[in-house]
Amino acid sequence: MASASVSGTVSGAGAAGPAAGAPARVAAASTVAGPLPDAAPLPEAAPLPEAAPLIEFRHVSRLYGAGETEVRALDDVDLTIRRGEFVAIMGPSGSGKSTAMNIIGCLDRPSLGEYRFDGVAVQDLSQDARALLRRHYLGFIFQGFNLLARSSALENVELPLIYKGLPRAERAARARAALEKVGLAGRESHDPSQLSGGQQQRVAIARALAGSPMVMLADEPTGNLDSQRSHEILLLLQELNRKEGITIVMVTHEPEIAAYARRLVIFTDGRITRDAPVERPAGAVGCETGDTAGAPESGTPGEKGARP
User: Fold this and answer.
1) Side-chain half-sphere of 81: how many Cα atoms within 13 Å?
2) Which label site among 52, 65, 120, 279 has the fewest CB atoms less than 10 Å from its CB?
3) What global pTM score does this model have?
4) What is the CATH number of the domain that holds 101?
């Protein structure tokens, strides 16, 4: 975690002040001067059961419309995710899983209830403060990769570091290190059209990783990949969770994808209907031995998102 706490980072960006019960480490600064510190990688060890919550929903509801047209996308949800967990969120269309992900990612606010990130009441933060939280503590992985077509892999990974105000040399060094971690050393100058779908998703993971996030939010990260490339990407996420200590929250509608996580949360009609550990995560042996995790693909046969 960063030397400055989450509350310290966002307090100078228009936060409404520490909520009741907020940690005593909340910074007293009222302005943000210069680039903010990054979140350092967490320890390799898995979290202890009694670890303090990193992500916490307390009676969270998200309402759309009013009166007879009111829709409860989330309905009185309690959810706790601790540091170092790998959680899969599942549910059918309209179940509330994407709404929950948007709130966790500070892209939306609860209508009722409380969302706390590392002890900070996020719903009380200003828009600027929530943007700082996203920038410094969260990494996003999307189904569609969202890479810039005319930029190299290195440039794509560097992009969020520009918004963090890092010097050019440091951006390049961190981007190269992130690409190496995901098995793409030597492909820094390749643009997306020269990479397979699986390799493009690795670039997207490196982009999220380069910012040293506390949490990675993966929204259907294998939706555009075939089964073999999906397996490789999920092994990579397992390895990042295990070795880097990064908390991973992954939304999927496929049980075989959710099986790679260490915990499964199922939403139905805006409520959590199941929350249980995954006793034997898929691919765990391969991830432990490092046989395939992080290895670059040798080709593109059969890949949905691949280009020649």
Assistant:
1) 29
2) 279
3) 0.77
4) 3.40.50.300
